[in-house]
Specification:
alpha/beta; 7 strands; globular
Length: 213
Amino acid sequence: MNIVVVGGGAVGKFGNDFVRHAKADGHEVRVISHRTSKDSDATINFLSVAEAVDKFTDITRDLDRIDVLLYNSTHKGYPNGTDSFTSKSIIKEKLYVHGFYIQVLIPHALSIEALKKMDDKSKIIFMTTDVIYDRERTENLDKLGYYGGKAYQHQLMLALAECNDKGATVSSVSPFFDYEGDSYSNAFTEVYQHIFGNTHNGKVFDCWEEYAR
């Protein structure tokens, strides 16, 4: 398969582990990252849609098709602290916009570019969190930037799943990766296999409860 991973440069994290496993399994993998590493084919400024699209086009120019686009980049977002929601708060506009670029604008733009080389057997996959569905959540309520960005990205996934003109499957994965614990290996394997076998358009694959223990 021809696979493009956005956010696969951080060694020891899911994106980079996915890239290494996929290459070992014989897949052609291209990597876009905000950091320079030996696994990255392009390093981009995530605050420029034009640059992201240009770099994406460059590293996929020789591919006749794209089977999988995995958008793995994320951002802690802003606002992300209780001091942003008081009468003394000052809105930091640039930080707001930064998160929106990473969580929404860039994945939207790259999905459109990927679709140009996709068909009804291709897949676009985002990484999300099921916390955005929890109406009873009482923790991390100040982390608006992160959860708000994921909520917007979820709506992007649904819109692409419904409206893309190539019949591509568009979905999200909600994982729990405990990098310091024993469950990461199982969770990684489950998500890795799901990405290649997934046919659930407009759905979220939840890999949290079973492997979080």
